[in-house]
Amino acid sequence: MEFRYRYSDAVRNGVQAQVPVLYVADADAARRFYEVFGYSELRTGGDGESRWSYLQCGELTLLLAAVTPRLVTVELPLLIYLYVDDLTATIDRLTAAGYPVERAGYPDHAPGGECRTTDPDGNVVVFGQRRAVPEQARSPEADKEARFSLIREAAERVSRHGSAPARCQIGGPRGEACPEPAEVKLADSWGDTVWGCLAHADETLLNARGAFLATEDGQGLGAYLRTRQPPSPPIARAANP
Ligand SMILES: [Zn+2]
Predict the structure, then answer these.
(1) pTM of this prediction exceeds 0.70
(2) Of the four listed, 66, 189, 210, 232, which is most buried by Cβ atoms within 10 Å?
């Protein structure tokens, strides 16, 4: 029997709405946070020690649930990405309500800018603005600072680990050797890697599409493969780079 999956079936039988559910410690504290940027409570309820609050903002909904004993489902906080119409107004409201906000530059997916904060449960909430802002209206330091802080973070991790070669391997645009110390490692998805000083790593990240900061955060291939090895004798690790 031939079965053809038609687009119209997919639409008719597909998802019609999406309700993210956040488990929170205090439903009221979380609701106050989400109200700052447009959500309002549609319904609320509870049963014994548990409380829930169903929030709406336009067509979007969000369910906050506080249960006792507290449900711990993930070790890391969640990250919620929300697009807003006016990022500056959102930043102003959050700041006025006492939530610290950090501007995070102008990535391709948010040419109007991006910022991050955390909700009362420590979930990271990132706001982006899709509508681009003209170059002269951009917050001048936001872009540079955001990328540079990522590079600095990576550099600090490397210096704690002590695995960098002595000198920058990127060098100048015409192949000039760079005397600066290598502080961060860049990679691409093919596996090419290079060590660079902060300035040349920054320039490379801007210009080499697909290059990213390589970090040793215990979640990479090396750590994964080590879990598949017999515990002893210890496996010699490949020298960097
Ligand atoms: Zn350099």
Answers:
(1) no
(2) 66
